[in-house]
Amino acid sequence: MQSTYENRLNAGVFTVHRLNGTKLIKTMAADLEKMLNRKRLAVERLVQVAERHAAKYDWDKEPSDEYNNIQYINAPEPSNIEEDDYASLRKQMQFKSDARFERDVNKNTSIVQVPFNVYSKGTKLLKSVGWSKALNQQFKRNLELEPSLKWQYFGSTEGYIRVYPGFQWRMRAGPHDQLNIYDCRTRLWYTQSSTYPKDMIILLDRSGSMKGLKKSIAIDAVSALLDTLGDNDFFNVLTFSKKVIPVDPCYNSTLMRADRTNKENVLTRLRDMETSDIANFKLALKSTLDIIAEFHNRGDGSGCDCEIMLITDGAPDSYQYIFDQAHKSQSHFRVFAYLVGQDKNYLEPVKDMACNNNGFFTQVKSPTGVTEQVLHHVNVMNRPLAYQGDHHVTWTKAYYDTTNGDEQGFGLISTVASTVYKMVPGEPTAFLGIMATDVPISDMMNSMPINRIGVNAYVYMVTNNAYVMFHPWLETKYVGWDGKVKTKLDYNSIDIDKLEKDDGHAEIRSALVNRRTGQVSTKQHYTPLDNDMKSLLISSGVYYFVPVADTPFSLAMFLPSKYGHTKVNYSANLRSIRYSDVSVAETWRYCWFKNKQSIEEMGWLSQIDMLKRYLLSPNSQTIKCNQELVNGVLFDVYLTATLQSVWSEQKMHQNTSGKGIEMTFFISRSGVVRKYWHTDAQDAYKEDSLQLKYYFNLIFDKLEYPLIYRRAVTQPKDSWLYVVPPTTRGNNKQVVFAAKAVRQKEAIMGVISLVSGLMLGYESFASLFWDEVAQVYGVDCMDRTNKRFCYLVDDNAKIVLSKENQEVGRFFGEINGHVMNQLIEAKVFDRIVLTDETAMCQVKQTKKNVGSAASNPFFSVWSYFMWWTKELVVLLANVALYNWWTLAVVSQPVQANIRPCNQKYEVFVANRSKTPYTNRTWCKDNYAMLCEGEFGVFNVSNSNLFLIVTEQLWASDFERERCNCSGKSEPFSPIRGLEVEAAMEDTCWRAKIIKERKRPLSC
To answer: Where is the VWFA domain (predicted)?
Structure first.
């Protein structure tokens, strides 16, 4: 294969060049920018159309009450009422399967969702729904101009969301699967775009009168306020009666980042809040203003708006003199006041605090009014934007879209959004809502295919806060204690320094946050090769980084030294893929449809099918391909065209199956995989593919090459990689994979063209190897009568062969701790400790909230019934009691049985330069001669394998007991996921860490 490759080079079929990392990362960033810019332009077109129609809409006309409300689309008609007040909303709608949206949709119209706590036939809502119906034409036009667009939508200040294309909205899954609680106004894309970044202090009254239902409403209000905060915001929650006490004592004189971990922590602590004594408003207000002044004087915070949110059941005075003094000495702030409960005796002073300080006052009388009343502050905070007609565009961090109760959908997405205003001459500009569209993170990765950079190189992207958008090591899921796959609590707030831990990465993080372009070299780069951190690649290389223009994102790339800095260019005169055994990386984007019509006519096609269609008609108006990647595929197919006949001849004349060879394969840089089966075992292995699939199917990821490819290229020249993958439960069929990188001579800059390999039956491999050992060393490792033990281990000390089959796949130290410890001391194996800072751990002790009327749903429901008025009954006539009750329960902070944590892992890596190594085991506290045992470690030439031979000299079990070596001989396992607990004095470590971030440009 190597000679064939070099012959093709000499014939000019391809050329090899030195890769310019800086140029490459800039090209990738430019390609990503172009793709994201198209999404942004789609939103801006929608904003223009929306404002044009809103300006000419007749707002004085009685609105129609007929629209595509998701709650009544294809819904059964009620049979137990005489008059259906919602008959005008009930309609049938047809949906058709669409591959782009991965569900049935209707591309002729949009649908409207209204949360259950918003009256779906309210006059203001109907008027807003009426003018926004005109968006349908632009929705469709956008999809024609940009066929890759996903969901387009408009979130209104009235609470509804209009989504295109139309689809059958599924309510949130659960025991009450019709609970329609989604409110777009609390979503990150809405709150982030509707206001400037802000600093918020919530001042919560915990005096003796704030008990029972008042306390419950107050905590719900805190939760709703925190829902409106995003990555660029800061907050704190202070409780007060006689004294002012921060909910989180670690933040007693400052504000914290509004990330999910901090918000969840505060809400959990609030559940234990006790009410007592009399409220000291003077002390509370002064303390709050002092904290704000000190925080801003340090230069911390959002750098934009500042809010004080007062939640109380009444105040004796407005304390305006305190606010006046603060206004003189510090920047502008607003006060928002929420009066909890029915009582109006102390309403005016509370109202004056808000109205005299550029804020807003509202009274929250019942639990159902919490969200609606809290959201008034968003509209007020939007006023500066509205006055300026500020249409700044925002991009969210990555998140899972759970709009439709389906967390999978397009996977991780980012939303680009902008504000919509009602601009009528002679009238104040009014905030109408937010226009947005989703961009799957997978689409971003498609714009910069991994083939450009090669194996063991990778790209990643972060936000202005250094939160990871995508990274090959980012794990957003974990397996819970119940065995179910779940989403990590802080999955989209992972700082890049939790994944990248090279010594020089602090400099890289700073450059990414501050949007600088450059490069940094690293001498020791650790790359985990699997999710369990059982194997590790140690290499040197270079980081390159660059900002993505017109976005808050920055892009980085790591290239390994030597082979990572080569590039292969192929001639473009090859035009055919005629072989049935050829497959390509289906997660890569070789080809795509040019337009919407092609997608609708042809539906979903695999990448290999699209490639073949394109090659038959390269000038087709239907399919467009990445020509550089296609040329690589064609070259690799051309290069390996003779493999089938060679493999077949070997099978026939050299009896390869008799030597245990069951399958041969090769994997190329361009994503091509070819396999040839030497036996009829293919179907049997498909049955057993659960654990084998990563090797057997040779899977390419969007960001990484197959694991066996990545490991093979890290082996020394002419060395083979041997892997024994685990078997599935109940299936003992074991195999061995052997793979080797095809490297070129030094003149070709060490480029790695492909990886070739084979799959061997385990028994055949074992027999061949032990026979070879017997011939070379004169040692019969399979003799069960002697005291000699032979182990074939890989470069991570995992047993590949042993006379005891149950030991295969285990760590050698679990079998012989004494010898393994001596190998570690002799540096034959290096112990490397890694820390996973994105892990999830089980909460050791949980607290149960009991006794408080605020936490008793029966008490809350009864009080709620007592407060109902005639108007409220009419408004919520279509809402079942269980809807509110469930909402009240789920809105409370629930203490989960898991939490983010740090976990420690050990990896053992062989040091070839220390072999061969021989020694004796002995115990200084025992009889030396009785306890001595010989052992030796030998590197199996041209492989990642090591032969360990041990020989014990004791004659009986009694003597063996005496040679315990004071515990030194005890078997041990590598540390796997051990929680790293902070010292007691360091419980406030989060508050001590102030990480560098870049403030948004707009405010």
So the answer is: 199-378
Number of neighbours of residue 362 by Cβ within 10 angstroms = 18
Dist. CA 150–CA 768, nearest whole Å: 56
Tokens found for residue 362: 């509202």
The DSSP bridge partners found for residue 943 are 720
Look at residue 458 and give its three-state secondary structure.
strand
Fold of 196-369: Rossmann fold (3.40.50)
- As assigned by CATH, the class of the 626-778 domain is alpha beta
Are 796 and 831 in contact by the 8 Å Cβ rule? The answer is no
CB 550 within 8 A of CB 41: no
The burial class, CB within 10 Å (0-12 / 13-18 / 19+), for 635 is buried
Residues 944, 794: Cα–Cα separation, whole Å: 6
- In tens, the pLDDT along 537-568 reads 888 999 999 999 999 999 999 999 888 887 77
∠ CA 653-657-658, rounded to 5°: 85
In the numeric block, the tokens 């480029």 are attached to: 751
- For tokens 């944590």, the residue is 901
Q: What stretches of 453-535 adopt beta strand conformation (E)?
A: 458-462, 468-470, 477-479, 485-487, 518-528
Q: What is the pTM of this model?
A: 0.86
Question: Tell me: the pLDDT tens digits for 917-948?
Answer: 999 876 554 444 455 678 999 999 999 999 99
Q: What is the largest CA-CA distance in the chain?
A: 104
Per DSSP, 252 falls in state S
Nearest to 318 by CA among 297, 303, 339: 339
Per-residue pLDDT at 703: 81
C-alpha to C-alpha distance for 191 and 419, rounded to whole angstroms: 10
Backbone angles phi, psi at 74, to 5 degrees: 55, 25
Q: At what angle do helices 627-639 and 2-10 cross, to 10 degrees?
A: 120
Stretch(es) of the chain classified as CATH 3.40.50.410: 196-369
Q: Which residues contact 272 (CB under 8 A, 6 or more apart)?
A: 847, 849
554/461 Cα distance (integer angstroms): 6
User: Residue 843 phi/psi, 5° resolution?
Assistant: -70, 125
Tokens representing 344? 């109006």
Give the torsion through C-alpha atoms of 891, 897, 902, 903, to 10 deg. Answer: -150
Structure tokens at 340: 């909890």
Helix, strand, coil content of the chain in percent (nearest 5): 35, 25, 40
Whole-number Å distance between alpha carbons of 739 and 918 = 29
Cβ neighbours for 254, distance < 8 A, ≥ 6 positions apart: 236, 291, 294, 295, 300, 991
Cis peptide before 165 (omega within 30 of 0): yes
Distance CA 51, CA 61 (A): 18
In contact, 396 and 444? CB cutoff 8 Å: no
Cα–Cα dist 423/842, whole Å: 53
Cα–Cα distance, 994 to 987 (Å, whole number): 15
> How far apart (Å, rounded) are the C-alpha atoms in residues 688 and 696?
10
How far is it, in rounded angstroms, from Cα 708 to Cα 640? 19
Supply φ then ψ for residue 215, to 5 degrees: -65, -40
CATH 3.30.450.20 spans which residues of the chain?
449-565
> 658 falls in which pLDDT band (50, 70, 90)?
low
Tally Cβ neighbours within 10 Å of residue 350.
26
Tokens standing for residue 395: 């991009």
Which of 857, 744, 814, 855 shows the shortest CA–CA distance to 969? 814
Pick the closest to residue 556 from 37, 22, 998, 19 (CA basis).
Answer: 22
CB atoms within 10 A of CB 974: 18
The least confident of 173-177, 256-260, 471-475 is: 173-177
Per CATH, is 449-565 categorized as 3.30.450.20? yes
- For Cα atoms 865, 867, 869, give the angle at the middle one, nearest 5 degrees: 100
With CA atoms as reference, report the closest residue to 837 among 415, 474, 551.
Answer: 474
Instruction: Take residue 413 and report the two structure tokens written for it.
Output: 């997405």
